[in-house]
Each structure stands twice: as C-alpha cells, then as structure tokens.
Amino acid sequence: MAISYLGLSEINGPLVVLEGVKNAAYEEIVEFTVDGTEKKLGRIIEIYEDKAVIQVFEGTESMSLTNTRTHLTGHPMELALSGEILGRTFDGIGKPIDGLGPILPEAMVNINGLPLNPVTREYPRNYIRTGISAIDGLTTLIRGQKLPIFSGNGLPHDRLAAQIVQQASLGSDTDEKFAIVFAAMGVKYDVAEFFRRTFEESGVSDHVVMFLNLANDPVVERLITPKVALTAAEYLAFEKGMHILVILTDITSFCEAMREVSSSKGEIPSRKGYPGYLYSELATLYERAGIVRGGTGSVTQIPILTMPNDDITHPIPDLTGYITEGQIVLDRQLHGQAVYPPINVLPSLSRLMKDGIGKGYTREDHQDVANQLFSCYAKVGDARALASVIGEDELSPIDKKYLVFGNSFEKEFVGQGETENRTIEDTLRIGWELLGILPKEELDRIDTKILNQYYKPSERDWAADARAQADALRQS
To answer: Is the pTM of this model over 0.70?
Structure first.
C-alpha cells in the first residue's frame, strides 16, 4: 500500500530522515514533491523502528523540513526493459536522455537483482575477441568472466574501453547474438561525449546500451548506475538469449560515492575511510557476471578502476582482485614510451584463460605461445637490470637478443593502433615472429611438436627497426 507523509525530520547532505513511518521496506523507492511542483526520487537505505533514512538521487537542494511531501511507493527501484534498449542512451538511473522517448516496457525489473545460484552456474569456456593482442593473446577474456582493468589517473583507459566496445566480438565463425552494455560513473562531460561520438562514428551504437552518470550529477546516482546497467545486461542475456559484455568505468567513482554517503550516515570508517562493507558491495556487482546452465546467454564484465597514486594495494584494486578472475594492469612507464595500449603483461593475468583457448577454441599453439612470451619477457627485465649496471655493450650475445626481444615485444605485440583490430591468428603470428628473434633452444615452454611446426628464425633486423622507431619518435 502506498503512503504519503508531510514534512521531514532531518536533512544531512544527500540523506533525509523521516519519522513516524509504517510498513516501510529496505530499498523501497520514495517519491518527493518539493513546494508542490518539483519531483525527486529516493530510496530507503536504513530503517530504525519508525525512522527511515532515505537517499535522494537528485540531491537535497531546495528541500526543507516543511516544504516536502514524501510518498512511499511500496516497491523497490525498477527498470523498464525491452529489446528496444539496444542503441539507446540513458542517465545514471535509467531515464532516456537521447531524445527518442520512453521505453515501452516488456518487463519492470528490480535493479537490485539476485546473485546467481552457484548450482545453476555453467563453467565459462568460449573466449570473447577484443582485437587487442595483449588481451587476446596473453590475458584472454572468457564469456561469463569478470576481468578488471587496473589503471591510473592520466592513463588511456577511456580510449582502451572505447576500442574494446568497437572491436569486441564472439569471433567470425558464430551467429550468436552479441551486445555491449556500457556504464560510465562520474565522468566529465567531454569524456561522455567522446564515448558517444566514438560509438556513433564507428557504427557500433546499434548494439550498445549506454548509461551515463556525469561528474555534475548527484553523487548518490553513482551508486545506482552499475546496478541499472547490470540489470539491463541480465535481461538481454537471460531473457533475450544474448551474450553481453558489460564495461563499467570508473569503479573508483562508485567507491568514492559510497564513502561520501557512508560519511554522511555517520558510519565508522574502515581502511582509507571507506565503509567496512566495501567488499560486499563490490562482490554484489561483480558476482552478477556468469552463465546460467541451460540458457543461451551470458554476462561478462570488464570493470575499469583508477588506482589512487598507482597503488595496487589500495582497498579498491585490492578487494577487486580478491573477487574477480584476474586483472589487466596499465603501466605508466610504457605510456611514457608512447606504447598504446600500455598493458604491463607481467602482473596481468586471466585465471580462466586456460579453459577457453587452445584447440577447438582459438588455436592449438595458443597456450604454449602465451607461456613462452611471458617467460621470455620476464627474462628481459633481468637483462635490462644487468645492462644498467655493466652497460649494454658488455652483455652476452643472448642477453642482447633478449633486449631486442623486449623492445620489439612492447612496440609490436603490446603496442598497436587504436583502430587496429587483430584476429587471434594475427596475434599468434606476431608472437611467433618475435620468438624467432631468440634461438630455438631458449624456447623451453613450447611442446616440441608445436615448436617444429611454427618456429622460424627471424630474418628481420629488429634492432635496426627499433632504432628507426626511436629516431622517428624523437623527431616528432
């Protein structure tokens, strides 16, 4: 039953307190009427006996203790969903902002969702191609996986996210339906326009659903945006049978909003001032990825977060690493060397990669090539450290080859153009060309049969190419 109340008991930042409440429920949606005309939405986040603490989505400006009428709707926040949401743009709480009118709903769905029952989950297998070699080749994204990108302020994670949206696919040999749900939280207007313009110009907008929460939008709205996006993704995946890739940027903005609201509520802070339930809130979002046994759809997540001061031990990346199945780490040093995307492959990993690559999925040599590239690139670090002590000229011939391999690997394999969409065959071909720089006996992570089939000593002068690239960079 819907009930209305006159006046408020207390206003504190984005929160208001209402006393004398009866039959209210946690997460119930509340409608405010301010001065008889202005409409606002809120949700109940705490209940003490007859007191309800309510988050106001649009902020509490213009609200006072006497000029507000509060109407309890009797239901949680729901999102109007249908197949028409593909190609549409919404604000942070799911209202259309593209001028194309409201959605005619086939279903009204509770945005809080439910965690997937572990018994009904199906183990992730097939991969999603991003067209980016450092991801597809070494940290492969598997359907139903959650694979975050750890970035830092000033690094090109926005450009990388846009490139993934433009290039992501299930591969060229499938007719399964694929779409992307893109949610931006706390982004500046020019960044939101960059995403919108990029998707339109590249022609991918028709299979992208966008949710945009701008930096000047209310902080509380940021807490709702990822839930709204995941609700839309689950509907398309489990009701429409589509494979959905969800990109959430920036999870740090979501956590900062949570800290601000928690402070307003007077809660005792945990690490770095974040609330003690930060882990459970992040897990609530991340665990909505997966595949339901017997269904035809899947939800895959790429959450993007900026690490404050590039600190990977900060609570947000730290807790995210516990919950998710790997991470892709962007590196400031590579970015300074004009390598795009600046993915540092050594701390990056995909824990589900081994089960979605190889014969029948990508190619039979994929796992061996990935293992060998990781191994060789790790030895590059040792060779560079030794060169910094004794000088490059004093290195052994094999160490010099590792230096050439390392520079070429960063420029040719990790580095690629923003519009360069590589197939898995392209990625593996480049990997084998780079391994050809090294003697065959150094490649000890590859099965002999595969090594004999694919290995060819490189005839290209990689060192000369690297010098030419460096000279061109200096001149530009």
So the answer is: yes
